[in-house]
Amino acid sequence: MENWIGIGIWIVLGAAVGLSMKIFVKRPGETPGHAVILALFGSFGALIGGMLGVGLFHFYDPVALSVGGFGGAIFLSALMSWVYRWGIHRLA
Asked: Rounded to two decimals, what is the model's pTM?
């Protein structure tokens, strides 16, 4: 049960990081409607990053509620959200 709670926290944390990218990466003349996509990219990145973080840093005791899991979740969700914002910025 503890791992499912950690994965749920990763999803919520990733959505929060993805939505915060809307504040940090500014776009002039932005069209509305990117918040849901940013939250989804952030959540997906947090899931993948959390799994990679747990796998790399806590290989013998894989627990989702760990420093490696949260670090990987935050890093990859921020990276995926930033790449999306940067790519949309360059396309416009």
From this structure: 0.83
